[in-house]
């Protein structure tokens, strides 16, 4: 029976007030220790899931675009070494516009990420401030354009029903999203 693997990266540049996920803000992340821990857990679960095929790998968080590309690559390699992985496996990572530099996204792609999911949430600066986001609407648009150059498959999230958001405002957000391709 095929299945997917979720890798949780619990670190962020800031804690968004609406987020209920296990996430923490720190500058002191031991990437090597995290890589070793992931590899150990992957090996343990690999023994339990012998004969099953992995069809998707999803790096969520937190902010996985803060994970070092070497850590991402080590995790993907460990999964491929410990599981039967489908030839067309989809490997996705979440990223925020505030941490999605060209170098970071290129490194993620080169480490094996094939699909990028951007946490845009809104193109409206006032709503982004309310949500505790560190990027602006313009930066979100720039990051979407960057993702289009680097990734064949990509997506971005928008939040509906923000305080004071009218139906007309939401429709404008959707029209802008659609115009971005």
List keywords for this structure.
181 residues, alpha/beta, five-stranded parallel sheet, two-stranded parallel ribbon, 6 helices, globular
What does this structure look like?
This protein has 181 residues and is an alpha/beta fold. It has helices at 31-48, 69-82, 102-111, 125-130, 137-150, 167-179, and strands at 3-9, 11-12, 24-25, 53-61, 84-95, 115-121, 153-158.
Short description:
41% of the residues lie in helices and 25% in strands. The protein has 181 residues and is α/β, with parallel strands linked by helices.
What's the overall geometry? globular
Q: Structural class, please? A: alpha/beta
Order of helices and strands: EEEHEHEHEHHEH
The percent of residues in helical segments reads 40-55%
Tally of contiguous helical segments: 6
Low-confidence stretches: none
Largest sheet: 5 strands, parallel
C-alpha termini separation: 35 Å
Placed side by side, the strands forming the largest sheet appear as 1-4-5-6-7
Strand-residue proportion: 15-25%
If you compute it from the alpha carbons, what radius of gyration comes out, rounded to the nearest whole angstrom?
A: 17 Å
Let me know the average pLDDT.
95
Task: Please count the beta strands (DSSP E, at least 2 residues each).
Answer: 7
């Amino acid at each position: 029976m095929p299945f997917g693997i979720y890798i949780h990266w619990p670190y962020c540049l800031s804690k968004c007030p609406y987020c209920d996920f296990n996430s923490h803000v720190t500058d002191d992340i031991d990437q090597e220790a995290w890589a070793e821990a992931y590899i150990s857990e992957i090996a343990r679960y690999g023994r339990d899931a012998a004969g099953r095929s992995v069809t998707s790998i999803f790096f969520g968080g937190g902010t996985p675009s803060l994970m070092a590309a070497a850590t991402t690559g080590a995790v993907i390699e460990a999964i491929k070494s410990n599981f039967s992985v489908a030839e067309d496996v989809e490997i996705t990572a979440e990223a925020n516009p505030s941490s999605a530099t060209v170098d970071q996204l290129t490194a993620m792609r080169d480490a094996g990420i094939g699909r990028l999911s951007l946490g845009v949430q809104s193109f409206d600066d006032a709503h982004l401030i309310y949500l505790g986001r560190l990027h602006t609407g313009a930066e979100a648009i720039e990051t979407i354009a960057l993702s289009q150059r680097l990734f064949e498959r990509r997506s971005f999230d928008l939040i509906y029903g923000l305080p004071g958001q009218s139906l007309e405002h939401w429709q404008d957000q959707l029209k802008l999203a659609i115009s971005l391709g």
